[in-house]
Specification:
- By secondary structure, the protein is mainly α.
- About 80% of the residues lie in helices and about 0% in strands.
Length: about 100
């Protein structure tokens, strides 16, 4: 891959990202009042992020039981409102320990 091709790719991705963010601001000038649409806009980032991350959780360790154990620990700790660093560390350590026991 040449440097010019890589820079062109970066420029195209930057332009697409800018257009996606700028077009709604330029087209829609009034404030939304529809409660359904506002709740959709509020929860949309969480849904998209979950849809991108959740499938990768089960393929991250190379072992579905180890990944499931780590995800389970993360869900339980996040349910009890543990801090993010604690949830992440506990999930990684759990997945690693289960992976060591299995393999």
């Amino acid at each position: 891959m040449t440097t010019g091709f890589m820079l062109l790719g970066i420029a195209v991705m930057s332009g697409v990202t800018w257009a996606i963010r700028m077009i709604p601001l330029a087209v829609v000038r009034k404030k939304f009042k529809n409660r359904y649409f506002l709740s959709l806009l509020y929860y949309l980032p969480y849904g998209v992020l979950s849809a991108m991350i959740f499938p990768a959780v089960f393929s991250s360790c190379g072992s579905i039981p180890a990944s499931s154990a780590g995800a389970g620990v993360a869900l339980i700790l996040s349910f009890f409102r543990a801090k993010l660093i604690v949830v992440a560390a506990a999930a990684v350590i759990t997945a690693w320990m289960v992976g060591m026991m299995i393999g």
